[in-house]
Amino acid sequence: MRASFRMRDLLNPQRLFQRARYSYQQIPTSLSVENLNGALQSLTSQNGAAWPAGRRRCGIGKISTTKSIILALVTLLLIAAFGRQGHQKIQEWRDSRSDLPYHWQHYHRLNGYYYGIKALVPYSQWQPENGYNQSIPISQQENVKLPINEEGPPVDPVKFDPYPVDSTRQKCYLHATEEGEVPDVYAYPGIPQYMTEPFYGDYKALGMDDGMCFERFGRYAAYGYGYNETMGGMGPGILTEQAGAEKIYEKTGFVDYSNVDWGTAQQRCYEKNQARLSGAHPLTGNRKISRQAYILRTWTGFDYQPHHIYAIRAMITELNLKSGGEYDVHFLVHVKDDSVPIWADADVYRRVLEENVPREFWNMATLWSESQMVMYYPDPFPGNFANMAGSKLHGVYRSAHLPLQWFAQEHPEYDHYWNWEMDIRFTGHYYDYYTKIDEWARQQPRKGLWERSKRFYIPAYHGDWANFTKFVEQEIETRDRPENNPELSGPSPVWGPVKDFPNAGMLDSPEGTSPPTSYEEDNYEWGVGEDADFLSFNPIFDPALTNWVFSWDISGYNTDMPPPPRRAAIITVARLSKRLLDMMHKEVFAAKHTMFPEMWPPTVAYHHGLKAAYVPHPVYFDRDWDLSHMNQVYNYPENQWDSPFGWGEHNMLGSSFYYNSGFSGALWRRWLGMGENSEGGRVWEEVGSGRMCLRPIVHHPIKHENGPVD
After folding, report:
1. Alpha helical stretches, state H, 421-541
2. Which helix (DSSP H) or strand (DSSP E) does residue 292 occupy?
3. Is pLDDT of 20 > 50?
4. Angle between the N-to-C axes of helices 262-272 and 306-316, in degrees from 0 to 180, rounded to the nearest 10
5. N or C: which end of the chain has fewer CB within 10 A?
6. Which of 667, 8, 85 is CA-nearest to residue 388?
7. Counting beta carbons within 10 angstroms of the beta carbon of residue 355, is it exposed (0 to 12), middle (13 to 18) or buried (19 or more)?
């Protein structure tokens, strides 16, 4: 009955209507600020349509009764003043905007992203354009002029070096002859004036420098970008705007990557630095420097374009060669033809690999197939609450975690494993980003961590991270505990392993997962200094409180009982510890438990008391959202249908990071100097403020990088 009820829930005509009406690609040009907001600008303080009331800001009390009466009287007077004419204007505006099915489309468009290096200012002078729907964005105010240095960038790019001083780190090279030192990455000290502020997530919370920006040449020239094949490059970027790029090439030179074997280069780097990567750290005598596997999920038939190659070279160089072997980058290649016996014939294995992976990456690739997973994790897996995908359990769509678990068993030398996708791009420096995330997660206390991790952190609304932590602790008492259904969602707050539910039959949890004290007695001490077992890039939510379509894809549990309480994080990109992957492996192999891949790792961490956190990385939007409304939509949906993790996912279309984002690809291609929706490109940048310069942003998904340059 539970599964059939879920099926009926899916028949929501509103969702079908919305999907049929909307295309992100039409947004930047078909909607102007004047059309969206002009008609109501003189009628409302929101400069747009009326919005649902958001929850109150942190620390701000509710409006008093006296003020409420005064506000009501003023409102009645305004309505009377506008009268029939005002109502007619609103109705005419609504009729003219009938092609905008989503509320967020009525917000002002943000343009600060597209300002370039000719408009750089020191961080101390930077003003973000965001008005948060309380005022028109600065970039669109008629009396505001963008400061442009017509002669080019007002400052020179500087080397970006995030590596700590360590005399034990041995230098690594591209070739066995110890030749071919990889050049550095360059950034600009400053930000384009009126650059947009992220809406949720925060650089400062992660300890990142938010006063620098990266443009395409400083970021990728070191890896073959911007020069042709005769010089060892790959071509893209040659025809784009290049003012000031010569200063970068003077420092990086032109590296020929045509004969590089990245797999053996990584192995050599590890061997040179093996002493510092095992045992106590030679400088501190304390914890070792952990080894981490950075795993790119790819497949046979994948079309590797130049921009894929640049990004992968950057990952290997910055994470492995420059760090002294702290990370190893791997390809985990899905062989889609199940009839190919890659596990039985070495010659077949090598042929498939070489036909489907670029030569420079051959020695860092591992093949797997679904039929191999069937043998490794054999049936049966009795009982499934609802297979909404309608596909087989061992298939990659429903069990992308199985080959990752297998890989961890085959490579036990790593402490952590990053699961990464081929359609992600990053404008920042990989080593800087991941080490800052690593350190941030290590310093997080376990108290309130699950509760913080289920919420979107909006700095301009919640304040700094310390204030957000206090706010969440208050909400645990005033909201989470009173509204919690333990049978459906598990205990609140989460404190240690969660096994007290009817459908248990659970395996023993690893050592060190039981709390040393009660929740109330802990003073934010337990977990500080402990590496996180699971790091996600979207909130870790309770799928039982949403209409997320795969919420009931749970196998191996007794379907005569309620489904176990569980957690999920949309998009499978994450960092998983060795002990988490070992626990996942045991649950699948020994207990025959498994779930949909976005639900399985966080649920195993949840059940076994492992440390899990949502990383508050900065996420940007193409519209100037009202912060109260954003908080309401993302953190307090009025019902399960409105959750951004279910049928409220349309709210993510204008974000820089989500599985269905349209803005992410458009922003990335503009940063590469390509035209998008009749905007951008070489001439646009030359006559304007130059090429874009963005702070570190994770872009997902990037479905193509083939835009016009002119």
Report:
1. 430-442, 449-453, 459-462, 465-475, 481-483, 486-489
2. strand 292-299
3. no
4. 10
5. N
6. 8
7. exposed
What pLDDT digit, counting tens, does each position of 148-204 carry?
Answer: 999 999 999 999 999 999 989 999 999 999 988 889 999 999 999 999 999 999 999
Biggest CA-to-CA distance, the chain: 84
Matching residue, tokens 């400083």: 218
> 330 by DSSP, 3-state: which?
strand
Question: Helix and strand tally (H, E) in the chain?
Answer: 25, 18
DSSP 539-554: --B-GGGS--TTTT-E
Q: Which of 216, 112, 153, 116 is nearest to 672 (CA)?
A: 216
Mean pLDDT, residues 614-618 taken together = 99
- For residues 133-160, one letter each, b for 16 or more C-beta atoms within 10 angstroms of the residue's C-beta and e for the rest, the string is beebbbbbeeeeebebeeeebbeebeeb
Query: 558's torsion region: left (phi>0), alpha (psi -120 to 50) or beta?
Result: beta
For the chain, how big is the Rg over CA atoms in Å?
Answer: 26
Helix (H) or strand (E) holding 366: strand 365-368
The C-alpha angle with vertex 38 and arms to 36 and 44, in degrees rounded to 5, equals 100
Question: Which residues, listed in sequence order, are joined to residue 574 by a DSSP beta bridge?
Answer: 419, 536
Count CB-CB contacts under 10 A for residue 336.
14
CA distance 307 to 705: 7
- Rounded to a whole number of angstroms, the distance between the first and last alpha carbons of the chain is 58
For the ranges 4-8, 287-291, 552-556, 696-700, which has the lowest average pLDDT? 4-8
231 by DSSP, 3-state: which?
A: helix
Token pair for residue 190?
């400053």
Token pair for 69? 């009466």
Query: What type of residue sits at position 47?
Result: N
Closest alpha carbon to 104 in 541, 640, 569, 662: 662
Question: Backbone dihedral region of 681: left (phi > 0), alpha (psi from -120 to 50 degrees) or beta?
Answer: left
Is residue 689 a contact partner of residue 112, using CB atoms and an 8 Å limit?
Answer: no
**592 touches 630 (CB < 8 A):** no
pLDDT at 409 over 90: yes
- Rounded-to-integer distance, Cα 225 and Cα 379, Å: 48
Distance of alpha carbon 239 from alpha carbon 191, whole angstroms:
24
Q: What is the pLDDT of residues 99-136, one digit of tens each?
A: 678 999 999 999 999 999 999 999 999 999 999 999 99
Residues in the chain: 710
Pair 119, 192: CB distance under 8 Å: yes
Residue at 383: amino acid letter: G
Helix (H) or strand (E) holding 295: strand 292-299
Is 66 strand, coil or helix?
helix
Please give the angle made by the CA atoms of 145, 190 and 465, to the nearest 5 degrees.
Answer: 105
- E strand or H helix that includes residue 683: helix 682-687
